[in-house]
Amino acid sequence: MVDKKRCGRVAIVGKGNVGKSTLFNSLLGEKFSIVTKWPGATRQPVTGVLNTDWGQIVLIDTPTFLTPRNKLERIMLALIKRSLVFSDIALLVVDATLPSSPFEDQLCSFIRKSKLPAFLLLNKIDLVRDYVLEQRTEEYLERFKKTFFYEVLPISALLKDNLPFLLKRIKNYLPEREPIYRNPSPPPKELLIKEAIREEITNFFHDKRPQSMEVIVKEIKPPQGQGKTYILSYIYIEDGKFFPSILGWKGHLFGQAKHIARLRCEKLLKEPVYLELILRERKGWRNNTASLVEFGYLKRRT
Ligand SMILES: Nc1nc2c(ncn2[C@@H]2O[C@H](COP(=O)(O)OP(=O)(O)O)[C@@H](O)[C@H]2O)c(=O)[nH]1
Ligand SMILES: [Mg+2]
């Protein structure tokens, strides 16, 4: 008898910097979720489709879980809750190199409310010794009651350690169902370019309040004849007083960042790119409804 196909949505949740986006990218084998060295980089849920020989997993990389301090972060929290409502499994990713903290308690209460089977994934095991891992696992199980997690797995998202086993366990909790996506299309080019530039820019300026930066791709023009693809992108920051520290002497620092971002765009598009980056101020955009609408975080009220 042939096994029925299994299919479902799997939400990856957790606080910042624990490795959610790395896990998302490693499982999909493609790089289209932003991975950065500072927390708070993933601002909107990103969906990726993984077809396997037994069915389909629709992975959702959710925004960083944090205590909201502005409108943007309140939207991010609402998006996490929404992702959970539509999912079949929640993967709570934690950083095994750090002690457990009450920080995830609220997140777990959302998971509990959504009645999803939850997995605890202790990530970054390449950086910890076995006895530390055991200690961490105990800490988490005590904090959240042993029965809360259906599975507890140590993984290394970066080295892809234990990920095949994770996929096997995920399969067990997915409903028998035909694939949700027949012909999954890759994310739109504009989004990929925006996230690629945002990743490089925010990593480059990781010590210059990257949380307040936004990247908008204004224009993409395909190459004319022998020419290059033209990309026009704006970098918004909340406060113009940081311009000099971002531009650097004679704009050299910004120039370097632009160079790195261009190389990344070329790698992504597999063709030569002319990248125009313009630095702009947008006062308090993270608390401004009109800006949040313009940047795609809020829908315009009609
Ligand atoms: N050593 C190690 N580093 C990791 C692992 N997973 C993620 N990282 C690093 O942790 C940082 C944050 O990762 P990211 O995926 O952006 O975290 P997110 O904020 O939870 O999405 C990046 O520098 C990753 O390279 C892992 O398994 N091992
Ligand atoms: Mg992320």
Q: What do you see in this structure?
A:
The chain contains nine helices and nine strands. The strands form two sheets. Strands 2-3-1-4-5-6 form a six-stranded mixed β-sheet, with helices on both faces. A three-stranded mixed β-sheet has the order 7-8-9, covered by helices on one side. Helix 6 packs antiparallel against helix 8 (252-269). It has 302 residues and is an alpha/beta fold. The model has no long low-confidence stretch (mean pLDDT 91). Residues 20-21, 41-42 line the site of magnesium ion.
Write the layout of secondary structure elements.
Blueprint: E1 6-13, H1 20-28, E2 46-52, E3 55-61, H2 71-85, E4 89-95, H3 105-113, E5 118-123, H4 130-143, E6 149-154, H5 163-173, H6 189-204, E7 214-221, E8 229-237, H7 243-247, H8 252-269, E9 273-281, H9 289-294
Parallel strand pairs: 1-3, 1-4, 4-5, 5-6, 8-9
Antiparallel strand pairs: 2-3, 7-8
Helix pairs in contact: 6-8
Magnesium ion binds near residues 20, 21, 41 and 42.
Question: What is the total number of structural domains?
Answer: 2
Beta-strand content estimate = 15-25%
Rounded to the nearest angstrom, the radius of gyration is 20 Å
Taking the sheet with the most strands, its summary is: 6 strands, mixed
In DSSP terms (H or I, runs of 4 or more residues), the helix count works out at: 9
CATH class of the largest domain: Alpha Beta
Large-scale geometry: globular
CATH architecture of the largest domain: 3-Layer(aba) Sandwich
Q: Using the coordinates shown, work out and report the CATH topology of the largest domain.
A: Rossmann fold
User: For this entry, what is the oligomeric state of its chains?
Assistant: single chain
Instruction: Give the helix level as a range of percent.
Output: 25-40%
DSSP E strands, number: 9
**In terms of structural class, how would the helical and strand content be classed?**
alpha/beta
Series of secondary-structure elements, N-terminal to C-terminal: EHEEHEHEHEHHEEHHEH
Mean pLDDT: 91
Bound chemical compounds:
guanosine-5'-diphosphate, magnesium ion
